[in-house]
Amino acid sequence: MIGGLLAPGLACAGGFTPPPGCELEMTVQMHNCQVSNHYRCAGDAPGLRTIAYADGQGVYFISQIDDETRWVESFAPDTGEIDQLDEAGSADHASFSALLAEGVDEYDFITRTNFGEVRRNIGSDRLTGESVVIDGVALERIAFDLTTEDGAGNLVSRRSGRQYISRELRLFFSDTEAFENAYGDKTSTFDGPVSFAFPGDADFGEDKPKYDCDMLMTGLSPDIRPTL
User: Could you read off the pLDDT of 32-84 as tens digits, one per residue?
Assistant: First the structure.
């Protein structure tokens, strides 16, 4: 369980500390004063990876995904909320393989929190045909839309925008996003990647964000989280 992965481990050169039994694979510096560290743990099921997102004040969100980029579990340290995929109750799981093969992936899945909340997530990802290279990493753009409802079918939020994917890494990365909650409050974000660091690189394991931090202090609400 992700909450247990907050136990201290061996610090990497940059300062990020993966839990015991886990190995750091990549560090991504992003716009909007954010950095993410990607690691895998020996005790996890095959294909699972964990991503810890940090702003200028430390880690604020930890997510665990599988090789199909399904949102398996997430943890918000500030609130203690744990969000888990309801695999049996979901009608149509997200599939990275389907996106690559067909150019589009539609999904309809359920998550449940330790606070008793149920969320239905309905959306789609579509390849746009655009390609870009950022810091030596080949990426492709997608357009996405995501509507989240509560257990009674009431609107929680709508999200739409652009993201990047890496075929080689089998990962999504943020780009531009428009967000609207049930009250009509709207915001837009630009969280695109700026640099990638792998073992041996200078910024590998860096736990402090480097970009746009002089413009803002990131403080995402629980309903505005990294899109997987």
Answer: 999 999 999 999 999 999 999 999 999 999 999 999 999 999 999 999 999 99
Q: How many residues does the chain have?
A: 228
Rounded CA gap, 69 and 49, in Å?
9
Domain span holding position 114: 2-197
Mean pLDDT of the chain, nearest integer: 91
Residue 215 lies in a domain: no
Name residue, tokens 């609400």.
Answer: 221
What is the DSSP pairing of strand 171-181 with strand 81-86? Answer: unpaired
DSSP string over 6-74: GS--PPPTTB--PPTTEEEEEEEEETTTEEEEEEEETTSPTT-EEEEEEETTEEEEEEEE-TT--EEEE
Residue 63 lies in a domain: yes
Q: Which residues contact 85 (CB under 8 A, 6 or more apart)?
A: 70, 71, 72, 73, 109, 110, 111
Q: Write the CATH number for 147.
A: 2.40.360
Structural domain count, the chain = 1
